[in-house]
């Protein structure tokens, strides 16, 4: 899924010789590739309707069956005063089975869909979350295709899975949320299992800024509006893609060769703007600190953005986390979101039940930062949790390794997830623990990780039978006993 997109004409003009060769091949019943789209002599005999979900039990409609997306080219226009979004997204995908139809996750009103330049039929199903596309011809397994979806709507009208995620005022908008955000502003295969390259163009009224993932590739200034073009060099999970539009102060530079860019909303008070910019400027140094434990930062650029809106949380958007205004001293929050660039972004979860791998690691790295910057040790923080949270607390009743959709972001997933990692550190020793962490990063880089894979790795690297240890910490809804085997001697 790391194939980079290339501009493609809507119509391919064949030379006479190539036309003759194509005709001969089709007559022989062969499959012939033209550009990056595969033409077949006849429709697949066993074509099916791709599933409406990728198979995650927490949100059965997330993602879709039968497709693998390589890239999204998003070209949107956003009107801040009316909160109306319109645009077109071009999707490069591969059919992973013979498909009569397939779905994308998308909430907005759609006016047109094409597949390989030909008009395709489409319907909205499952409460408007699924965009079901039926191409003029069935798609053969292994063939690559270009899908273009055109749309216009007010995203704030829509909800999914009990979520109303469009965060906007008449002066600013920011598309930040988890586990779902993409379907409010571009059609996607919306699950962590399908990473893709994301290229974002957003047109807004002149005088307003747009910030997104990756690098600023350019601006096109018109009479009344400006198009901002951003793209990231590495594939990402759909919910990690974002854009913010409004009035922002922007600073950038390089730290040890790594480009950084940060932004702060000018809708904040002067005091909050200054404090937020001081916090955002810490970003490159925090990355350098994390690299001492985790190895090289996994992406080609880093940054952060503080919104003037009130999301109530920060989020690890790839290469550029998003934050509320929290003051200049909230370094631990920056550590948490930047640790996610390794744990959650570069290594995404395989299923949402594996969420502790994201939040537990990011929280543990907060503790580690405190430990290495003059504060309490991570072990002391873990033992404080253990001593001060009564066994009857709901904190111990969450099954951290499979919390359920309703508790996927429960505090226990963060706190007990981090405790499990520190307890593992106590159990296997500091040197082996960091070998486990670095091996995990190396072996899973750019992909997806599961709890079972981490358990196997920890046992392999440590040479210990850790089954009972992980059962206690991840699968038992009770306070672990204070034993050596549980890392609590």
TrEMBL record:
Enzyme Commission code(s) on record: 3.4.11.2
Catalytic activity: Release of an N-terminal amino acid, Xaa-|-Yaa- from a peptide, amide or arylamide. Xaa is preferably Ala, but may be most amino acids including Pro (slow action). When a terminal hydrophobic residue is followed by a prolyl residue, the two may be released as an intact Xaa-Pro dipeptide
Keywords: Hydrolase, Metal-binding, Metalloprotease, Protease, Signal, Zinc
EC class: hydrolase
Statement: the UniProt record of this protein carries the keyword Endoplasmic reticulum: no
Superkingdom, taxonomy of origin: Bacteria
Signal peptide location: 1-27
Family annotation (InterPro entries): Aminopeptidase_N-like_N, Aminopeptidase_N-like_N_sf, Peptidase_M1, Peptidase_M1_aminopeptidases, Peptidase_M1_dom, Peptidase_M4/M1_CTD_sf
Cofactor dependence: Zn(2+)
Domain Aminopeptidase N-like N-terminal: residue ranges: 72-240
Pfam family, one: Peptidase_M1
Peptidase M1 membrane alanine aminopeptidase domain sequence ranges: 329-473
Family: Belongs to the peptidase M1 family.
Listed name of the protein: Aminopeptidase N
Organism listed in the record: Nocardioides pinisoli
